[in-house]
Design a protein that fits this description.
It is a single chain. The chain is α+β, with helices and mostly antiparallel strands. 31% of the residues lie in helices and 16% in strands. The strands form 3 sheets. Strands 1-2 form a two-stranded antiparallel sheet. The chain is flat.
Length: 153
């Protein structure tokens, strides 16, 4: 199976578009993934796994329902700090009732030096910081790992 990167998403040559959806133009494939690249990716994920699980547990254990401004803002502060670690410029837009809005921007350069900056790819990531659970749920069902799976609100 050949995998190509298209606008930041992985697509596969043998997976057709959904019915009624026009086929998206394909970017030039960077070439097949080789074992050394997969090994390097695996090593990078493995080396960060404990931190990932610790961060996940910390975030899951915060009551941050949509109307729990303090909890949503706590998650927002964590996300803002994480984005800054990645080199992002971060803006926090205060909100009087609901959680503050966090916007992180990372300016990038084209991967291909022959591509003009104006033609560089752009990735937009949108996420939410709240959950659907009422206050007290994190204390009732704290994050835990059981039989190799993570559980929590």
């Amino acid at each position: 199976m050949h995998v190509a990167t298209l606008a930041g998403m992985q697509t596969s040559d043998n997976i057709p578009p959904a019915p009624g959806t026009p086929a998206a133009p394909r970017a030039a494939a960077p070439g097949p993934v080789i074992d050394s690249e997969l090994s390097a990716l695996h090593a990078a994920v493995e080396s960060r796994f404990d931190r990932f699980i610790a961060d996940l547990g910390r975030l899951v254990n915060v009551d941050c329902g949509s109307y729990t401004k303090g909890g949503v803002d706590e998650i927002g502060r964590w996300v803002a700090a994480f984005l800054r670690e990645l080199g992002a410029d971060v803006d926090v837009i205060p909100q009087p009732v609901l959680g503050d809005i966090v916007v992180g921007t990372i300016e990038g350069a084209p991967r291909d030096r022959d591509v003009a900056a104006a033609d560089a790819r752009t990735l937009l990531l949108i996420a939410h910081l709240d959950t659907v659970f009422p206050e007290g749920t994190a204390a009732e069902r704290p994050f835990e790992i059981r039989d190799g799976r993570g559980y929590g609100p």
